[in-house]
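User: Sequence recovery, please. Input:
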């Protein structure tokens, strides 16, 4: 049975004022927050920025973000019926939307 998550996403770029955009995302039980963000990008706004690589292997850690104020991996956190507040990591430099500078300084090219 399809349910609906209401994703409230903080968007913007470093140096700009960030703003909030909300999306109703249909999902089946077991789908991840990353699945929801990919659905938004496909069906509503291809400009929504977020990172991922391994998808559920929990190896790359590129999908780290805040969900309701708590650090999560978007590829393993499950969507739930109702409101979910999604924000970029607070302690990292914001690049755009949910993308932050996560590589250690000595690993950046
Ligand atoms: S996409 Fe690699 S840990 Fe989430």
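Assistant: Recovered sequence (109 residues):
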């Amino acid at each position: 049975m399809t349910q609906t998550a209401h994703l409230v996403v903080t968007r913007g770029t470093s140096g700009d004022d960030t703003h909030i955009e909300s999306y109703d995302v249909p999902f089946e039980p077991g789908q991840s927050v990353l699945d929801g963000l990919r659905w938004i990008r496909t069906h509503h706004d291809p400009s929504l920025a977020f990172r991922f690589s391994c998808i559920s292997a929990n190896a790359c850690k590129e999908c780290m973000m805040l969900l309701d104020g708590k650090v999560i991996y978007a590829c393993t956190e499950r969507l739930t019926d109702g409101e979910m507040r999604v924000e970029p990591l607070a302690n990292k430099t914001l690049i755009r939307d949910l993308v932050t500078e996560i590589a250690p300084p000595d690993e950046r090219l």
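Residues 52-55, 58-63, 73, 75 surround FE2/S2 (inorganic) cluster (CB under 6 Å).
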